[in-house]
Amino acid sequence: MEKIIDGKSISQAIKDECKERCAAYKEKGLDVTLAVIIVGNDPASKVYVGNKKKACTAVGISSLSYELSEDTTEEQLLKLIDDLNNDSKVNGILVQLPLPKGIDEKKVINAISPLKDVDGFHPENVGKMCIGEDGFVSCTPAGIVELLKRSGIKIEGKECVVVGRSNIVGKPMSLLLLRENATVTVCHSKTKDLKEVTRRADILIVAVGKPKMITADYIKEGAVVIDVGIHRDENNKLCGDVDFVDVVDKASAITPVPGGVGPMTIAMLMYNCLESVVLQNQQRD
Q1: CATH 3.30.40.10, domain 28-113, yes or no
Q2: What percentage of the chain has pLDDT greater than the value 70?
Q3: Which residue, 271, 272, 277, is CA-closest to 16?
Q4: 28-113 matches 139-262 in fold
Q5: What distance in Å separates the CA atoms of residue 6 and residue 261, rounded to the nearest whole number?
């Protein structure tokens, strides 16, 4: 097992597999199409959307881009989503978050058809994940499970600690680890003596949103450490929620930032786009 978990090479392997699947679909006359909606001019969102479109091109997925102005109303956005829901040529719909003030994110997420919700945020897909039914799984947690499996790290029977309880990472992450037969603890801002809990972890997953918060004294010797955070440090260099330099010698395996979890999120989005064809055809049968 490599000490530094290489998210770039693992994500590339998944994208290569997706490319093969996409080509097989095209031979059957099936074109896979992702509609991407961005509202406003958030620079980070524009970068993310650009990366998603590039990944679609590399894999062979067609992408439709809807770049809406900052003053787009909630009603206009919901109308566009409804049109895309009813367009049989569109397999997946992705609305880039965050949205401008005045637009209710929850209402927008709920408006996307669960069969086209490739981000895995719709309550119906979250519910299906809870009870182990087929549906879309949030891309970052799904990517982390793939990172672990493809790095030869056994999850079953391990003590896993997730730091963070967001709807996008923390909660779905804990459910996916349970599905893999791990024993799971979820920590958050109200957890008492966080270090005592995190030091029990065989696998520690950190999605707390605070740069370099997790230092060596938070982890036990030989733990696997997965860092979901992404920030700029005082020198404007990218860093994560984990103090990599402090932790690396104590961990048996660790994800870097950048080049760890980040590339996996987009790879799993491509995977979900291809799964949308399977789910939609099941629905038609």
Answers
A1: no
A2: 99
A3: 271
A4: yes
A5: 9
